[in-house]
Design brief:
Length: 414
């Protein structure tokens, strides 16, 4: 029986995409231990895997850009990664000694855990639920919200901006990161994405139409497609009782400055004949007022709502966006940072939704964007036919087992 040790960043958006893969591996006979958010430990155990909580200094950490105003701060993000690195490294190294795994899995944001996995000498893999932060000139750099293109001008743009973006990240991150790596006798990296490229396997839980394989990615990258897993919940009678067309409004589950989206949507949707179901995520739902034609809650199982949803209004999180795309539901995306601008521009370019700049967000502009998005329903349904909506867990588990098998073969030969 293979023993697999898994460590996540303190974010449900990074944990949930890999859960179905872990359950699949467990069903195939592997022993799984997950180190994750304290309030997710019992849920993981209910799924048949052992679990323990991240140490408090990690469990309570916020993303480095959570106070942002929509303009992504490279320095804030990289400082957050470095600030967590030491605690991640120490905790995972201790768990490796205790659990004695055959393989280690970490998410793309767990920089210190990646280094501990690298230092262990064991097979390891990284999973990523969004655009991979790998240097590439085969498309625009992530974070800028640029529309991909294949023309000569677009290729020239992508090459120039990719090198510029890489230089900015390396000024903000590389020297600090290398100083920290030296404290653990790890070799310096030449480029910021080098730790990812050293992983024997990189699993991308993303796919068309938002992401396609880049020609200059390493062979270790596998696009397995999105995971639709979400915590099992009972249907909400209040949601089931809604008879009007539903507009699902979602804010991020990781703290960011997106409160304006929920408040503006509640105002914009009044009198439209649609019922607004607003999930506030990391925000306090009591800060918003429900009406006869709206329901405000922190969380709701999206699967229970999407079946009767006419339009999704969202910050542009990869999870809800890919679920809507797979169901052919048009979107209005108001991106506030992180990967959201890239999600928004690709959805808009693909014809299945509308992008609205948060600086232009008013009840009037949002209402107009909803009308435009609803007019793209047929195109959204066409796009749904190319979304790899099922099978990602089996594909990911197959790749993990391939890495384990290669290690066993290598050990046997040695």
């Amino acid at each position: 029986m293979s023993r697999i040790l898994v460590m996540t960043s303190p974010a449900r958006g990074l944990l949930y995409p890999v859960v179905e893969t872990l359950v699949t591996l467990r069903r195939r006979g592997a022993s799984i231990h997950v180190i994750t958010l304290a309030d997710e430990v019992d849920r993981m155990r209910e799924l048949g895997v052992t679990a323990s909580a991240l140490p408090p200094e990690l469990n309570d950490a916020h993303p480095g850009d959570w106070k942002g105003n929509g303009r992504r701060s490279v320095g804030a993000l990289t400082d957050g990664l470095i600030d967590r690195a030491e605690a991640e490294f120490r905790h995972l190294a201790s768990m490796i000694s205790t659990y004695r795994p055959d393989m280690i899995l970490t998410d793309v944001s767990a920089t210190g855990a990646q280094c501990a996995a690298e230092a262990s000498g064991l097979p390891w893999a990284i999973w990523c639920p969004t655009f991979l932060p790998l240097f590439s000139t085969d498309g625009p750099p992530i974070g800028l919200g640029l529309r991909p293109g294949t023309s000569r001008v677009a290729r020239m743009r992508d090459t120039a901006l990719s090198h510029t973006s890489r230089a900015i990240w390396e000024v903000a991150f590389k020297n600090k990161f290398n100083r920290w790596r030296r404290t653990h006798d790890l070799p310096a990296v030449r480029h910021c994405d080098e730790p990812l490229r050293r992983a024997p396997l990189i699993l991308s839980f993303c796919g068309p139409p938002l992401e396609n394989r880049h020609a200059d990615w390493p062979d270790t990258v596998e696009l397995v497609g999105p995971s639709s897993w979400a915590p099992p919940t009972d249907p909400d009678p209040a949601i089931d009782a809604i008879t009007d067309p539903i507009a699902l409004v979602t804010c991020s589950t990781e703290l960011q400055a997106d409160a304006a989206l929920a408040g503006t949507a509640l105002t914009a949707l009044e009198g439209t004949g649609m019922h607004a179901v607003v999930t506030t995520g990391a925000l306090d739902p009591d800060a918003f007022s429900s009406t006869a034609t709206s329901t405000v809650t922190r969380f709701v199982a999206h699967e229970h709502v999407l079946a009767t949803t006419s339009v999704v209004i969202t910050h542009g999180g990869m999870g809800i966006t890919q679920k809507a795309l797979a169901r052919g539901i048009p979107l209005v995306i108001v991106p506030f940072g992180r990967d959201q601008r890239d999600v928004a521009v690709r959805v808009h370019a693909g014809g299945s939704g509308v992008r609205l700049d948060p600086r232009d967000l008013t009840p009037e502009t949002l209402r107009a964007a909803v009308t435009t998005a609803l007019g793209r329903t047929e195109e959204a349904r066409r796009v749904a036919s190319i979304v790899p909506a099922v099978g990602s867990a089996d594909r990911a588990a197959d790749h993990i087992e391939r890495v384990l098998a290669a290690r066993r073969t290598s050990d046997a030969v040695a």
